[in-house]
Amino acid sequence: MDLGISGRTAIVCASSRGLGRGCAEALAAAGCNLVINGLDAVRLDATASDIRARFGVDVTPVVANVSTGEGQEALLAACPEPDILVNNNGGPPRRDYRELDRQAMIDGVIQNMISPIEMIQKVADGMAERGFGRIVNITSITVRMPLAGLDLSSGARAGLTAFLAGVGRPYAARNVTLNNLLPGKMDTDRLRGGLEQAAKTAGRSVEEVGQAQAAEIPAGRFGTAAEFGQVCAFYCSVHAGYVTGQNILVDGGLYPAAF
């Protein structure tokens, strides 16, 4: 399917690896030029080179922390008028809520709620003036289905979801959409870290724990960054202009509800 976004420019935050990279690659395959972002300069440059070589699009790497004002300004200096924004950021590490102090909670809310809102503040009105914009926020299945130890991440992402539910809808008439993608158990470094921690606690191998968790998913496996990216690319496409304010689960059927 031609997504109708060839030649558009996308900022994809936290995209040197994992789900962010999956989104960047899918948008590049659709013909988008990219500004990608990460903290590790070597890995980010390698990602940029690989995407350029495979898809023949312009890719600008920006080493920056998107949780900071300076990082956000660096991204926008590289792409002042993006057509597409994919908000993504690392989440707080797994931790019992009793162990969270005030600063840890503030940092988590900045990472997973405040920072994406700030990026939207900076780009949404310009998108509306130009008559096209697609904003996709990578949140989490935990917005709907809490997971032990991820309470801070869940709370911050749920706050983002509620905040944008009202903010996003007035833009729809200007062909600017805001949607959220809720990944379930995806085969990423974050998942692998969780499996290692669970295996250590249970005295089992990582492979055993991984197989047991995958068996709980109706699809019988973990998701991949590549297929997640394709979902993201569709919601950035011309075909998704009538879809906004939605929370789209990408979870292999793990969330057990009709609504």
Query: What is the β-strand count?
Result: 7
Rounded to the nearest angstrom, the distance between the terminal CA atoms is 28 Å
CATH architecture of the largest domain: 3-Layer(aba) Sandwich
Tally of structural domains: 2
What is the N-to-C succession of helices and strands? EHEHEHEHEHEHHHE
Question: Top keywords for this entry?
Answer:
single chain; 259 residues; alpha/beta; Rossmann fold; 2 domains; 7-stranded parallel sheet; 46% helix
Give a verbal description of the structure:
- This protein has 259 residues and is α/β, with parallel strands linked by helices.
- The chain folds into 2 domains: 9-186 and 224-250, 3-Layer(aba) Sandwich (Rossmann fold), CATH 3.40.50.720; 187-222, no CATH class.
- Helices cover 46% and strands 14% of the residues.
- It has 8 helices and 7 strands; from the N terminus they run E-H-E-H-E-H-E-H-E-H-E-H-H-H-E.
- A 7-stranded parallel beta sheet has the order 3-2-1-4-5-6-7, sandwiched between helices.
- The protein is globular and about 55 Å long.
